[in-house]
Amino acid sequence: MTVDSARAAAAVAEFLRAMGEDPDRPALAATPARVAELGAERFAGVGVDPVPALAAAAVADVAARGPVAFRAIPFVSTCEHHLLPFAGTASIVYAPSGPVAGFGALARVVDTVAARPQVQERLTDEIAAAVAAALDAAGVLVLLTAEHDCVSRRGRRLPGTSVVTLAARGIYEGEPARAEALLLAGATG
């Protein structure tokens, strides 16, 4: 993704003016450029397809006979409704039918898809779709748990609340495999 840093910084300066601030005062002078840099980092996943990198990192000569679970992968994303962060953990369970993934490659999928304006429901679904497509897995289950700043720090201000979302593909769309995958993902009743 190519970021127009000058345009982003100008927009931040204008926002500060609209809020009644002076973006030229010494304490704020570098803020527009800092926010533009932050935006480029937070939205680095815009336009990036995580599937090719995961597929390229897959190891074909490992024979996995059961499900693989990678739990508690930390992530931070940005709520597209308020441009505030939401952060939590992702757990990925997949049933290999061919190549298996390196765990770092799975974490990169989460990072890539989280680094764009998101809603948690779509983030969960996009991670599951990428893992299913890249690994041609017999089943994929993704469980995300996150706290949203737009819920905990504004409006009703409900700190400590979390949102849990689930996406399943293949064999994990039905029971009893789904129950096993949820157990492996660390979901508790």
Short description:
This protein has 189 residues and is α+β, with helices and mostly antiparallel strands. It is built from seven helices and five strands; from the N terminus they run H-H-H-E-E-H-E-H-E-H-E-H. It has two domains: 38 residues, no CATH class; 135 residues, GTP Cyclohydrolase I, domain 2 (2-Layer Sandwich).
Features:
single chain; GTP Cyclohydrolase I, domain 2; five-stranded mixed β-sheet; alpha+beta; about 190 residues; elongated; 5 strands
How would you characterize the overall build of this protein?
The protein has 189 residues and is of the alpha+beta class. It folds into two domains: 5-42, no CATH class; 51-185, GTP cyclohydrolase I, C-terminal domain/NADPH-dependent 7-cyano-7-deazaguanine reductase, N-terminal domain (GTP Cyclohydrolase I, domain 2, 2-Layer Sandwich). 40% of the residues lie in helices and 23% in strands. The protein has seven helices and five strands. It has helices at residues 5-18, 31-42, 50-57, 103-114, 120-135, 149-152, 177-185; strands at 68-79, 85-95, 117-118, 139-148, 163-170. The protein has a five-stranded mixed beta sheet with strand order 3-1-2-4-5. β1 (68-79) and β2 form a beta hairpin. α1 crosses α2 and α4 (103-114) runs antiparallel to α5 (120-135). The longest helix is centred in the last third of the chain and has 16 residues, at 120-135. The protein is elongated, with a radius of gyration of 19 Å. The model has no long low-confidence stretch (mean pLDDT 93).
